[in-house]
Amino acid sequence: MTNTVLVNGTGTIGEPLIALLLSLKKKLGIDKLIFYKHTARLIDRPMLINLQKKGGLMCVEEKKMQEFKDLGIVPDMTFKEALAIADVVADATKENVGMFNKEHYYMPNKNKIKGFLAQGSESKFGTIYASGINDDIFKKDKIPQFVQIASCNTHAAAAAIKNFAFIDGKNNLKHADLTFIRRSSDVSQTKGVQAPEVTVPDDEKFGTHHAKDVWRLFDTKGLNIDVYSSALKINSQYMHSLSAHIKFKEAVSRETIIDIINEKPSLSFTHKTAINQVFSFGRDHGHFGRILNQAVFVEPSIHISGKHLQFWSFTPQDGNAILSSVKAINYYLHDAETAEDLMKHTEPWLFNEV
Fold it and tell me: Using CA atoms, how far apart are residues 47 and 31, in angstroms rounded to an integer?
């Protein structure tokens, strides 16, 4: 028996996910790591060749094999051949492509592949998941075969709500108001916005999709939480940030919040208030520049007034979603206890303080 993982896409999530899986391949019990590239481009040649040097196997559409070879890039197999041997497929393609792939490629192969996961934008792909929030979906008799990995901002917000408002399993949340200040693009991309741009709320109850996705995460646990979000996109390529106001049913002390951040390996804090400095820390110490924590809380901003908590946090640029992808892959390849134990190998990129 061999464990084979196929990552579809080499973009801002796909490439670092492939790199992380390759660096931990043996420790995670992965025998083959295959990655799919859709378009043959000269500017991608260094990345593709280096991923192959690290032990990755590249697959492409059969009709495009020669296009890649003409650029000096030699694929290892076709996409069809990769699907035939894959145990888990992680889709890291751009918005709406994951749903197209599900219909045309994944559903026809669902009887021989253990699990499929897609990234944050694919809300109808499957059951939403975030590490540490609703791992119990993988501990049932029938686990979901199709999983949507929550967006990085959804991870950050859900982690704050779960850890601050659900202490000892008690639901202490009355309402959460979330304001996301979003980077316009990743440093690897050339797109962006010229000036701050308000995201128009598209849901009367939840505002932007972030709150709705947070609600969906807790809904898998049978919880109906009151949460609303708004968002502003700014002309930055650094990190997302979150300004949150959480109203509790019963008062919680600031000391309790600080202790929770210190005690939870998935949470991090910083005394830095400039987002570029936190981004720089990730660049220097993270895996492929990624901090894998759920959120980095700005310690000086944490304020408690009675039953009200207000804080700023920085969202690791896709690092938390990449971590959840690795964990979901573990769940599909191993029993739940082993899957969780194997996550210890990601601890070098989880930081208590940034």
Answer: 21
